[in-house]
Design a protein that fits this description.
Layout: H1 2-12, H2 16-36, H3 50-70
Helix pairs in contact: 1-2, 2-3
Protein backbone atom coordinates (compact mmCIF):
# COMPACT_ATOMS: atom_id res chain seq x y z
CA UNK A 1 0.00 0.00 0.00
CA UNK A 2 2.91 2.36 0.62
CA UNK A 3 4.02 1.92 -2.99
CA UNK A 4 0.55 2.74 -4.28
CA UNK A 5 0.39 5.80 -2.01
CA UNK A 6 3.82 6.98 -3.21
CA UNK A 7 2.73 6.48 -6.83
CA UNK A 8 -0.47 8.46 -6.25
CA UNK A 9 1.51 11.32 -4.70
CA UNK A 10 3.94 11.38 -7.62
CA UNK A 11 1.08 11.47 -10.13
CA UNK A 12 -0.67 14.16 -8.12
CA UNK A 13 2.45 16.36 -8.39
CA UNK A 14 2.71 15.93 -12.19
CA UNK A 15 5.36 13.20 -12.11
CA UNK A 16 3.21 10.68 -13.99
CA UNK A 17 6.04 8.64 -15.46
CA UNK A 18 7.70 8.15 -12.09
CA UNK A 19 4.33 7.48 -10.50
CA UNK A 20 3.41 4.83 -13.05
CA UNK A 21 6.85 3.24 -12.62
CA UNK A 22 6.42 3.09 -8.84
CA UNK A 23 2.89 1.71 -9.24
CA UNK A 24 4.13 -1.00 -11.60
CA UNK A 25 6.93 -1.88 -9.20
CA UNK A 26 4.43 -2.07 -6.34
CA UNK A 27 2.32 -4.48 -8.39
CA UNK A 28 5.35 -6.69 -9.01
CA UNK A 29 6.17 -6.68 -5.29
CA UNK A 30 2.54 -7.58 -4.57
CA UNK A 31 2.77 -10.45 -7.04
CA UNK A 32 5.90 -11.75 -5.33
CA UNK A 33 4.28 -11.46 -1.92
CA UNK A 34 1.15 -13.27 -3.13
CA UNK A 35 3.30 -16.03 -4.59
CA UNK A 36 5.17 -16.73 -1.35
CA UNK A 37 2.75 -15.80 1.45
CA UNK A 38 0.24 -18.51 2.39
CA UNK A 39 -3.37 -17.86 1.38
CA UNK A 40 -4.43 -17.71 5.03
CA UNK A 41 -2.26 -14.60 5.52
CA UNK A 42 -2.63 -12.95 2.09
CA UNK A 43 -5.39 -10.53 3.14
CA UNK A 44 -6.24 -8.04 0.41
CA UNK A 45 -3.75 -9.61 -2.00
CA UNK A 46 -6.10 -12.58 -2.31
CA UNK A 47 -8.80 -11.98 -4.91
CA UNK A 48 -9.09 -15.29 -6.79
CA UNK A 49 -6.76 -18.25 -6.85
CA UNK A 50 -3.05 -17.81 -6.24
CA UNK A 51 -2.07 -18.48 -9.85
CA UNK A 52 -4.61 -15.96 -11.16
CA UNK A 53 -3.60 -13.27 -8.65
CA UNK A 54 0.12 -13.65 -9.29
CA UNK A 55 -0.19 -13.77 -13.07
CA UNK A 56 -2.51 -10.75 -13.32
CA UNK A 57 -0.49 -8.58 -10.92
CA UNK A 58 2.80 -9.54 -12.59
CA UNK A 59 1.42 -8.90 -16.08
CA UNK A 60 -0.12 -5.52 -15.23
CA UNK A 61 2.99 -4.51 -13.25
CA UNK A 62 5.27 -5.47 -16.13
CA UNK A 63 3.15 -3.59 -18.66
CA UNK A 64 3.11 -0.51 -16.43
CA UNK A 65 6.90 -0.61 -16.10
CA UNK A 66 7.26 -1.06 -19.84
CA UNK A 67 4.94 1.87 -20.55
CA UNK A 68 6.66 4.12 -18.01
CA UNK A 69 10.07 3.47 -19.52
CA UNK A 70 9.16 3.35 -23.20
CA UNK A 71 7.00 6.47 -23.65
CA UNK A 72 9.02 9.54 -24.58
CA UNK A 73 8.83 12.18 -21.87
CA UNK A 74 8.47 15.16 -24.25
CA UNK A 75 9.93 17.50 -21.69
CA UNK A 76 8.03 16.11 -18.68
CA UNK A 77 9.15 13.86 -15.84
Amino acid sequence: MLGVLAAALLVMFDRWRRGSFVFGAALLVGALLRAFIPSSRAGLLQVRGKLFDVSVMATVGGVMLWLATSIDSLGTD
